[in-house]
């Protein structure tokens, strides 16, 4: 519920800021533009409500420190034959195999 109130405060402050800007243009005082304190407080309170109740209290945080495997960096990226796992050779290998025959280095 408080997330909705924060969102409505942000919408209302945006509308108020647009009306204030139009009022300054109508009065020919557009060069003296500054954000009024009440609109600024409304923006800050709306943002704080959305941040606090929308992010912090939802508690849907994923643990970024858990990994599905316990491999080190060297174990995960070790390639003893130094062949690329994918690339143009993998795509064209079936075509060349049909034309020339089996050309695999390891066999």
Describe this structure in words.
The protein is mainly α and 107 residues long. Helices cover 57% and strands 0% of the residues. It is built from 4 helices and no strands. The protein is elongated and about 85 Å long. The mean pLDDT is 78. It comes from Paramecium primaurelia. Keywords: Membrane, Transmembrane, Transmembrane helix. It holds the Pfam family MMgT. InterPro entries: MMgT (IPR018937). This is Membrane magnesium transporter.
Which percent range fits the helix content?
Answer: 55-70%
Inertia-based shape: elongated
Q: Tell me the series of helices and strands, N- to C-terminal.
A: HHHH
What class do helices, strands and sheet pairing give?
A: mainly alpha
- Provide the residue-averaged pLDDT: 78
Estimate what percentage of residues fall within beta strands: under 5%
Radius of gyration, Cα only, in angstroms?
30 Å
Distance between the termini: 66 Å
Number of strands: 0
List unreliable stretches of 5+ residues: none
**Total count of helical runs of at least 4 residues:** 4
Largest sheet: none
């Amino acid at each position: 519920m408080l997330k909705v109130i924060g969102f409505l405060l942000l919408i209302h402050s945006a509308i108020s800021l647009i009306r204030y800007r139009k009022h300054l243009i109508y009065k020919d005082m557009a060069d003296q533009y500054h954000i009024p304190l009440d609109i600024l407080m409304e923006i800050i309170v709306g943002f704080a409500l959305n941040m606090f109740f929308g992010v912090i209290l939802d508690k849907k945080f994923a643990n970024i420190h858990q990994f599905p495997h316990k491999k080190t960096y060297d174990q995960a990226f070790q390639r003893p034959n130094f062949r690329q796992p994918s690339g143009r050779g993998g795509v064209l290998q079936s075509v060349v195999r049909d034309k020339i025959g089996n050309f695999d280095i390891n066999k």
